[in-house]
Amino acid sequence: MLIGCRVANLVKMGLDGLVDVLKAAGEPTRLRLLALLAAGDLTVTDLTEILGQSQPRISRHLKLLAEADLIDRYQEGAWAYFRLKQDGKAVALVRMLLGATSENDPVLLRDGERLATVKRVRAERAQDYFSRNAADWDVMRRLHVSDADVEAAILDLVGDEPIDALLDLGTGTGRILQLLEGHYRRALGVDASRDMLAVARANLDKAGVTKATVRHGDIFNLPIDSHGFELVTIHQVLHFLDQPELAISEAARMLKPNGRLVIIDLAPHSVERLRDEHAHVRLGFSAQTMSDWLKKSGLRVEGTRDLDSGMEGDALTVTIWLARNERSEGAMPENAETLDVLERN
To answer: What is the predicted pLDDT for the residue at 7?
Structure first.
């Protein structure tokens, strides 16, 4: 009876459409695929590794799910990624079906463990890259586009609006904390690499920056109170992440009402060697993709800036997005503590 009520409340479809969705989802492998793709973007290679089935078989199932309008497919260089669609009646029904599966089902538990392993290997690969290149990360970033041009554009977009508190996610060598020192009263940089944090601390000491601090943390689950920052920055980090939209959502959670988010990253490109040699998970981001992610996080795009590298051959473009938090003061939790973490450092 409860499931029937949920169907009535959440999904109202014609008979043919309902049957099509149930046919597509009502097969063990395809239901397992839907459960995995509900957890994030995966390639056919990832899925074959997790499910232990052949690539042609997995591809055939994915084709059927796409024809039923249940999953999205998008190309990044030589790789194709798949994920469960975000909206639509058919997907709402699928999410209800997935919610009805037992948390103790041995097959789904095993799939979840293998998924965690795939994601852990990805994360370790990126983390190893950061650690091995901590000392010269700034030098490698210059291969993309002139730092001077990027920093000038950042300063121009940020403008003179007062910043009581700045949060820099994936702070790396701490360059953003140095660049914007004259704009904020206090700042915090967060990074998952302890090697990078050691470099950042040394750089801040060398530059005499005393009103910024850095700390270890997960960009998907920040160890700080929300709604405390006028400005959040994410500089050349998202292309290393398996689910960059979740990092954007977490960044949005950190913003005060009317606060701003600045994202600096690569525009779409096809330089495949960056994936193989430099652990790039994503080959850039389109304006539409970024706009959709920002909107879903409650942010409004205020401006963008494209900066060409000026290089021949594998030319890369850096894009800067500026977005503003549209939450009102009344939307903030009453118990939100503003920057308590900064006071403790």
So the answer is: 44
